[in-house]
SCP domain-containing protein (Kitasatospora gansuensis), 298 residues
Amino acid sequence: MTEFPQNGQVYTLQSQSGTVADVSSSSTASCNRIQAWQPNGSKAQTWVFWAKENGTWLLETGLTKGTHGPGQAMVMDFNYNAFNTHLFQEHGNDNQRWYVEDAGDGWVRLKTARGDGYLTADRVGSALGVWQLDPNGSGQRWKLLPVAGGTGNSGGGQRPQPQPQPQPQPSGGGDIEGQVIALVNAYRQRRGLAQLQYDGRLTPAATASSREQARRHEQGHWVAIGDEFSRAGYRWGGFGEVAGGAPIWKNPPEMVQAWIDHPPHDEILRGDFRAAGAARAYAGDGTPYWSMVFARPM
């Protein structure tokens, strides 16, 4: 009988090829690799399934189970730039949600909610990939093995009804935007500062700024952020922006860390703001340019 997840239940994910989904070196650091590994019974090989909207599931590593506030778990995140998986702080966007499909004979497949890819185990030690469906591929067929003492009931072959779960702190609309804001919020939390709330009215300003930097192929503040906020209907009492662009800042963790390491940008990250938006654009040669905008309402 096929085991389907129950809300809040802890499972080991074992592929038909015999490997399991494992957090490399048991580290909960952001962007740490999720890999295929031999079963060893550690917490790094356990996953908590949380029911989300539209029949999707959020997969939290057992390493952070019960150790965090709502929206602060480290979860299985589809890194769509590299077609593989890593840990990332929960933000609830499509690349962190998974469909569980019956693959027959007691097996399931896990399909990302962002596109058509399926969780795929390759050789031992390699990152779990997200690839197109291979109907005969053993690396895409998984069993959910309940962990003794895990919360909830065993699946018993019945599809569960989603139950209310702690939701992520608002962190953004698009995947990149959500990741940037989640990382900055994690930094602000460590400094004892208020969390920023995503506001879609701020996104056009960040988008305009990142695109103008990319057009000029030059980092800078070329857009009147306050005017963009006003055009979008946001009544602001104060605002700020951090910007950046270089080939070495190719993903959110690298860009956010660069801002933290630069005192003028860090001062803005720690500023007295309540809302944020973020965006990334590319120059013709592929260099990424970033903007994160902040606002304090009137």
User: Anything to note?
Assistant: Helices lie at 175-190, 203-216, 225-231, 252-261, 263-269. Residues 176-297 form a domain with the Pathogenesis-related Protein p14a fold (CATH 3.40.33.10).
